[in-house]
Write a structure and sequence with these properties.
Length: 307
């Protein structure tokens, strides 16, 4: 199994996002075996959202002591309102970015998570990017277990005698991702036994084709953060959308979903105009040249994520 692990390298420093579940427990042990104990640190976020959060933290501390891995624990204050899952994700990656200090940040996403992510995005986001899934590496963020299924990480932990904690919220139908896991994936399996493998194969194919499209966008932009409106209007519709999305993402330092769908509207702007878009993006035209900027200048940009 360990030969299927991605991105981890001997002696390369890595910060493991450690929840105490089976996947992150597998990841922590594999990281120690591949990168060496001296190169591994762990981060546990105690969100305080469940009654047994303290037991999760204690378990993580005990496992890290057993493996000889330094553990940092953060206990953020729960917001009074808003999307709790989004808040937890932002806290996790934000704290990791502050602590990483040049090391890779390893998340325990598996091939099973990949399938669920693609299906969820397919249903919730009308975007080509929804089908691309997660990459093994995005900057300093790595996903070493992305070629392994959840069943394989469990088998690894059993074989190695590694205990893990079960998060009962993963079974709650209150979360859309859990409904995908409990209902949609089994339904697809009934339609075709290789449904999950086919989803993963399609994502890999589209990522390869996406690299080709990225090269075309690179050629159009020539490394510039802007484009003349006249040139944008002459592009084929699909390429115009890709160029607009690339410029918007770069301006805010993160994905700005939905900008591409406004490409025709943006191309129709006058030579001196501005258009506010979702996700804190503003299209600005000056002297016939289009650029994008953040509507929240001066504020810290969220850490890049992904699930």
């Amino acid at each position: 199994m360990i030969d299927k692990v991605l991105e981890l390298q001997a002696e390369r420093k890595v910060l493991v996002l450690y929840s105490g579940g089976r996947d992150s427990t597998c990841l922590l042990d594999v990281a120690v075996r591949i990168a060496s104990r001296e190169s591994v640190r762990a981060l546990h976020i105690n969100y305080g959202l469940r009654e047994d959060s303290a037991q999760d933290e204690a378990h993580c501390a005990a496992m890290c002591e057993r493996l000889g891995v330094p553990l940092t624990v953060r206990r953020p204050r729960r917001p009074e309102s808003g999307n709790l899952q989004a808040w937890a994700r932002d806290v996790r990656y934000g704290e990791a970015a502050l602590l990483a200090d040049g090391s890779d940040i390893a998340a325990g996403h598996t091939a099973t998570d990949q399938v669920e992510t693609i299906l969820y995005r397919l249903a919730s986001s009308p975007s080509r990017r929804a089908l691309l899934g997660m990459r093994p590496r995005e900057g300093v963020l790595i996903r070493p277990l992305l070629s392994l299924t959840r069943e394989e990480t469990q088998a690894y932990c059993v074989e190695r005698g590694l205990e893990w904690r079960e998060d009962v919220s993963n079974e709650s139908a209150a979360y859309a991702r859990n409904r995908v896991r409990a209902s949609l994936v089994p339904a697809l399996r009934q339609i075709h036994p290789a449904a999950e493998q086919n989803v993963l194969a399609l994502a890999e194919l589209l990522r390869d084709e996406g690299d080709v499209l990225d090269a075309v966008v690179d050629e159009v932009l020539g490394g510039k953060p802007e484009i003349p409106l006249a040139q944008l209007r002459e592009l084929p519709t699909a390429l115009r959308r890709l160029v607009v999305q690339r410029l918007a993402d770069a301006a805010v330092g993160r994905p700005a979903p939905g900008t591409a769908r406004r490409a025709d509207e943006i191309a129709a702007l006058g030579d001196h105009a501005a258009l506010d878009l979702p996700h804190g993006v503003r299209a600005v035209v000056g002297r016939g040249t289009l650029r994008f900027e953040s509507q929240t200048k001066g504020q810290a940009k969220p850490a890049p994520i992904n699930n």
